[in-house]
Amino acid sequence: MDFQQELEICLRARTPFVYVVSFEERKILEDLKAVCERRKTSLLKWDHADYFQTIVGSETPPEARDALAALEAIDALEGRVVVLLPDFHHCWADQPKIVRKLRNLAHALKYTHKTLVVTSPARKLPEELEDDAALLDYPSPDVPDLKKILAGLLAAPGTKVDLSREDTDKLVRSALGLSSNQAQRVFAKAIVSGGVLDKDDIALIGREKRQIIRGSGALDVHEARENIGDVGGLEVLKQWLRLRESAFSEEAREYGLPEPKGIALIGIPGTGKSLTAKMVAGLWRLPLVRLDLGALYGRFVGESEENSRRALRLAETIAPCVLWIDELEKGISTGDNDGGTSLRVLATLLSWMQEKKKPVFVVATANDISRLPPELLRRGRFDEVFFLDLPTKSERAEILAVHLAKRKRNLSSFDLEKLAAASSGHVGAEIEQAIIDAMYRAFNDPDRPRREFTTKDVLEAIEKLIPLSRSQKERIAFLREWLHEGRAQSASLPELP
User: What's the rounded Cα separation, in Å, for the pair 172 and 411?
Assistant: First the structure.
């Protein structure tokens, strides 16, 4: 059902008060105008600056220079009328008289053919009006909408285009998730930046889009350059991901396979959970979108939940994508010392994870399982829960090889077997730090400055480093016991005897 159909149903049902959450004010007005013209219904608009205007119909607009006068004028209107009130949420802020009048009016309009439509970029509805308002979310532009916007810009005289049909489709899809105004600005910048619109502008639009999405506060788009070779060990998890590498393809849909929902990565800090999230996006060649749960929380009642819904809707418009929620336990509390806000944000997230229809693959990481509610990890929300344990000896050798190769060192110059044995109980982040410490040691050697570091340097760095497995022995034991109780699947193959 599209937005015009939803509006028409609201009018036919004599819904007195409709609240539309969107930045797309101009598009909403166009849709309202089309619906009212079809239904032979008058359409008026009132705002803080220009007061009443007639959009559809021949009625002389009433005089009203403040919000209360506008509501009284609406009450006096006769016949079939829709009144659009853009940004009316500013009028009821700290104004109980406006809220009361609007509530009285909503009750009175139930028995008429009059409907109020309030538009706002955010859901800032007073609690008293929650029961009276029909809440609608205006969808972001889809591919056909974006193609129309682009076509309108390309129709300008002198515009040069060098795009194949496939490149045009990629360019348009790269703008998914933007509003109409944002897409128009980004397309226009791409057209004028190089004098010709070509496939190089796909990357430009991607960069512009990342900046816009970062401006939302809670989402950040990362370039996933990591591949499966950048992660040492975790063979069970890697095999699980390889089996689903083509999971979002049309072939998979035709075969009858469902799109995977996501995975939870639980375990010891420093074992590569965040790196794995980046690796998933790189392996599957999907955009990586990081959700900052802490940025969702607002000062006002309902603001945090609305921020959550907006961020999740934005993630869906970028789909297919990987949504990375890092250190989940830090953003979600099960306590009630915040007035229940975190519980409501959690409920919003859980509901979305259970019901989402768009191909958004969630990778959630957590270090402290004791702070996670049990309903979060149940099947249906995640396809699998993986535990990332202390790396085995063979995995430590792989991790050493990855980090030495990353620093352009010849692996044959190092005794990986000896280093892997010496680093027992160390996680990947600690092994990487030991290599960095060894490099500093060699770089600043008083006898031979800038010399090449060796196996001996790395061994000495490992010896001095106190691993988490010793400094937080009880916590690590608790986490490993959780795995042994069968609550998750190990991400690694068992250690060979």
Answer: 45
